[in-house]
């Protein structure tokens, strides 16, 4: 097993828990970019010890659509079921056991399953439910109501409208959950829903479109480009065509950095490049921060909370053969 190393990095000043500069600040920008792509190139072989052992914090392959969830979802043809399952998966922080119980046995069996089993992962970004929410009840009832209310979004595309961009779709979901289900800040699971719908049904949501990242993504970009960490400083809008529109200089700089990485000749990503760069910059941040002793891996949770036991994060299997088309039991 050969670990990815960061030779000749330097000490940096911190602001709170975040470095003010890149640990590679004395490298050239080209060297930092090449180190990021070196990380990406070894990502799927899982020979690096962190990538091999810390499966839950590096929990995708280089290409997002290779997640087994997408292969299962391609057997679902009903738009309401597509919305329901993907919302449940996203609002449970991608809990595989909940998804499988729901997919195979339906809502009533899943509700009973929650009596003695976890309903959601507890190791990822906290989803802030409205005060007083019984999450085990809501995570089935809330997405089911949303799926009934929002299936028209996917129906419209199949009727001839253009596919949504990922951020456009995520923003529509966010607006719904704020207005109709009393959430204050549901964008995190709404973006995950947009990702998974796009990876599973590219004719409905465009997987080649921009997906705006979170804190870890910006921390990763900061390690690559040094200078100013753009987190919280980018102002943008999504226009009527679903396009990402920069609204300030920081947004223009973010888009410039993303284009450099997406279009770079060393980029090993062959598709869905904006999404996969967004995702892997976050993972790059985790890797370099742990390697420099400034971030600790979270306590491992069972592998089967995240993936089926037959799935390997190393890109040495395609996971599934034929999956029977299934009609979900409400």
Structure description:
47% of the residues lie in helices and 4% in strands. The chain has helices at 29-43, 49-53, 68-73, 79-91, 96-105, 107-113, 135-158, 166-181, 187-200, 215-225, 249-263, 273-291, and strands at residues 14-15, 18-19, 164-165, 205-206, 236-238, 244-246. The strands form three sheets. It has a two-stranded antiparallel ribbon. A two-stranded parallel ribbon has the order 3-4. A hairpin with a 5-residue loop joins strand 5 (236-238) and strand 6. The radius of gyration is 20 Å and the shape is globular. The model has no long low-confidence stretch (mean pLDDT 93).
What spatial form do the alpha-carbon principal axes imply? globular
Average pLDDT metric: 93
State the total count of DSSP E strands.
6
How large is the share of residues in beta strands?
under 5%
């Amino acid at each position: 097993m050969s670990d990815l190393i960061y030779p000749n990095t330097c000490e940096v000043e911190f602001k709170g828990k975040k470095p003010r500069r890149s640990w590679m600040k004395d490298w050239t920008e080209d060297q930092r970019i090449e180190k990021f792509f070196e990380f990406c190139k070894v990502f799927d072989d899982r020979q690096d010890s962190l990538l091999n052992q810390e499966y839950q914090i590096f929990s995708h392959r280089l290409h997002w659509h290779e997640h087994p969830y997408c292969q299962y979802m391609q057997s679902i043809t009903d738009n309401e079921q597509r919305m329901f399952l993907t919302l449940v998966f996203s609002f449970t922080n991608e809990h595989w056991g909940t998804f499988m119980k729901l997919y195979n046995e339906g809502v009533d069996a899943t509700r009973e399953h929650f009596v003695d089993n976890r309903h959601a992962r507890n190791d990822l970004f906290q989803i802030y439910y409205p005060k007083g929410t019984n999450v085990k009840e809501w995570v089935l009832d809330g997405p089911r109501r949303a799926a009934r209310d929002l299936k028209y979004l996917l129906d419209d595309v199949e009727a001839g409208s253009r596919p949504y961009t990922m951020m456009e779709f995520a923003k529509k979901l966010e607006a719904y959950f704020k207005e109709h289900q009393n959430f204050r800040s549901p964008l995190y699971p709404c973006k995950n829903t947009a990702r998974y719908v796009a990876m599973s049904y590219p004719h409905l949501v465009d997987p080649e479109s921009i997906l705006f990242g979170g804190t870890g993504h910006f921390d990763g970009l900061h390690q690559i480009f040094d200078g100013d960490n753009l987190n919280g400083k980018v102002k943008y809008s999504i226009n009527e065509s679903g396009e990402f529109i920069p609204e300030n200089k920081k947004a223009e700089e973010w888009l410039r950095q993303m284009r450099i990485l997406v279009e770079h000749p060393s980029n090993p990503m062959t598709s869905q490049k904006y999404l996969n760069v967004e995702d892997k910059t976050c993972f790059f941040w985790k890797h370099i921060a742990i390697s420099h002793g400034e971030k600790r891996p979270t306590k491992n949770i069972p592998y089967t909370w995240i993936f089926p036991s037959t799935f390997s994060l190393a890109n040495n299997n395609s996971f599934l053969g034929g999956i029977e088309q299934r009609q979900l039991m409400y």
